[in-house]
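A quick aside before the break. I want you to see a complete sequence-to-structure record at least once, exactly as it would be stored in a machine-readable document. Don't worry about memorizing anything.
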Amino acid sequence: MSKPPTLTLPPGARAYRLTTARGEFAVHDAGEPRAGTALLLPGFTGSKEDFIALLAPLARQGFRVVAVDGRGQYETGGPRDEAAYAQDELALDVLAQAEALTGAPAGTSASGGRVHLLGHSMGGLVARAAVLRDAAPFASLTLMSSGPAAICAGQQARTRMLIEALGVLDLAAVWQAMRDLDPPEAADAATPPDVAGFLRRRWLANVPEQLVATGRRLLAEPDRVGELAAVPVPKHVLSGEVDYAWPVPLMDDMARRLGARRTVIEGAEHSPGAERPGPTAEALAAFWHDCAAGRP
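That is the input. The structure line, written in tokens, reads:
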């Protein structure tokens, strides 16, 4: 899971519940849309806090940046029904969020302009599904540490174990079981106590059915790169130098198939936005500015 370097929102940022046609979503919102608006979707077991370190540098570049807890994630909540977390349902949520941010109904790009959409990891699969369903609201799509299809074999085994555990244990017991399985190097004594406490609180606040449904999606996601390549939206594939969910060469190949810009963040792994926020923000802002200038 992503580990935010801080939980403190930058000056001018605010936390609130974004009202949409599909309900309310907990968000962090920073900046003014002088250069555009960006909507950031977190990954599996993640939340809007994973993007905190990106808010200030992207706002300084002229972007309004809105990071969201998806349905069933952390502070948004959701029903105790796996069907509510089907990928089509989550994609419709993203379209509703984009409409709420721009005032433009689904299927149009009028009013407040289009949104730069970014999805991290599992959030990338949801973002892709939203663009495939209706590309009109989006000025660009960035897939951050998110691959072309299901996660790699090693992570599939861990995810299956998690899904099975969620069927028989409560979230607190599953959290402890996951910590017991962590390698010794994962016990990072440098993690600030407030961040360590947050990670556990966030896990306990997830809706279990959301975790099961999205976990199964990570195991079974088909390769939809060909479909996405045919959509005339500028695309960006960004990752760290190492990735445990999708091998970096696989993302290299996906970018080639998409005709997408490719960025590898030096010194980062699966969560570039949290691990190396400065270079990640620079790469995102450069891509979004280039999209506006017609040179993605």
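Two observations worth writing down. Strands lie at 14-20, 23-30, 36-41, 63-68, 115-120, 138-144, 235-240, 261-265. DSSP finds eleven helices and eight strands in the chain. We'll return to this after the break.
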